[in-house]
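Subject: Interface between my chains keeps coming out wrong

I've been trying for a while to get a sensible model of this assembly. When I model each chain on its own everything looks fine, but I need the whole thing in one frame so I can look at the contacts. Pasting all components below, labels as-is. Any help appreciated, I'm running out of ideas.
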Amino acid sequence: MQVFSALQGFLAAIGAAVLGLCQATGRLLMFAGMGVAHVVRPPFYPLELWRQFLKIGYFSLPVVGLTALFTGGALALQIFAGGSRLNAESVVPSIVAIGMTRELGPVLGGLMVAGRVSASIAAELGTMRVTEQIDALTTLSTNPLKYLVAPRLLAATVAVPLLVLIGDVIGIMGGFLVGVGRLDFNATTYIRTTEDFLTTGDVTSGLIKAAVFGFIIALMGCYQGYNSARGAQGVGRATTNAVVSASILILASNYLLTEALFPA
Amino acid sequence: MTDAPATRTAPAKITMTGVTKSFGSKHVLRGVDLEVARGESVVVIGGSGTGKSVTLKCILGLITPDAGAISVDGTDALRARGKAREALLDKFGMLFQGGALFDSLLVWENVAFRLMQGARKKPKAEAREIAIEKLRRVGLKPDTADLYPAELSGGMQKRVGLARAIAADPEIIFFDEPTTGLDPIMADVINDLIREIVTEMGATAMTITHDMTSVRRIADRVAMLHDGVIKWCGPVGQIDDSGNPYVHQFVNGLPEGPIEAVR
Ligand SMILES: Nc1ncnc2c1ncn2[C@@H]1O[C@H](COP(=O)(O)OP(=O)(O)OP(=O)(O)O)[C@@H](O)[C@H]1O
Ligand SMILES: [Mg+2]
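Reply #2:
Try treating it as a single job with all components included. I did that and got this:
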């Protein structure tokens, strides 16, 4: 009997967790839908959009640039080591370029921006929620979803691909520097091989991923901040949740996008 | 409930009937009935944590009541969506208890916020001028206009919030504790200002305050909230001989009475 009731409690807990998950997903999807609807419907707030674009895009440049530079360099070393086992050291330039543009540029760039931007959005909107500034917006005839959420969603969706594009270039340059400086590649050959192998598809697929990641980053920051619980603790939790959920969603959607863009 | 028929000649601007709201197992409002006439100034009094702020937020739709009805100018405030809700919110101005100033914007941008959005959009210079005029009315010098809210004292922030609430000359204004944190002289200026807005501009006002001097200066009618219901509602002249034990205890600040000191 005791076993039975314990089992029942266990199953109930699982049921509750599943229901809770469905509910949370539903709420998130609804929030995303409303956010997107406000992106396309006037009134627009171009000044807000520009501010967010600078904040998300421009000020993330150093982080993304440095990440790409070191990743490109490390990638060149690894591929050289791996390639030399098969006497195929010459693949370094092309694989660095493909690896950067298709995978590492968007994913690592996205994760770095998630840490920076999701957290800051969640903290900002969370504080606004807690100090009733979001309520105040409503009483001033301004829809907070339109004024706060829509500009951030749009800015991140546009800014992250641009960041990743710059990151791609810097990453390939990192590979080039290591290739020429440490691995005795000829500079002209390195550049020519890169040019020959890299296709537009490699780059655009990475940028499509980056746009999705940008949307996820802003969405999770906004969602967690907008629904932040009361008090400083609430804001802290919102910030952590935003970074964790954005990072996991980026990695999960990266797999799905890779499946979709490059079917095996 | 003693309700003076004399003040009921004007049509109702805001009507609340049976409004209830719980947060989890905490029943804050248990059936609030309140009517506010056009051009009337109603002051809501009641102990700390009895749900006065929640009541105002329910009317504004910032908090959705569990049950009951709220109508503003005959429109069902709880069911208004889209354009109807926008039109409804356009009528309101609200001073939040904590100020709720936008800390990323300058003081004057806060005050002029509504003047720079939507249908009533004004040129920047004009909006700024109006903002400075409103700041002057709440006793703030023009040079505060270019500061950030974080650079102001608590009482100054409150007054900026007040200036923002009245900036667009709304028909209905909610003041949540307008004079807490102000010195007695400034509190008096604010009391006068609220009275003036109601008598001269014909606005409808709902004010929450714990300050009995304010109550006597601002109110046409007083409503006392306790245990989630309006225990008493009547003209301000009657608060001293209301015959209601709750009001008597509250107005005179007595430790003994039906209101427990520990809540
Ligand atoms: N968003 C919320 N979530 C949970 N509980 C809330 C929320 N808002 C208010 N409450 C609770 O409702 C009760 C009433 O709060 P309210 O702010 O209306 O009090 P009040 O009458 O304005 O008090 P005071 O005079 O101290 O401002 C409080 O016990 C508060 O904890
Ligand atoms: Mg309050």
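Reply #3:
Confirming on my end. Chain B touches chain A at residues 57, 60-62, 86, 89-90, 92-94, 96-98, 100-103, 113-114, 117-118, 164 (CB under 8 Å).
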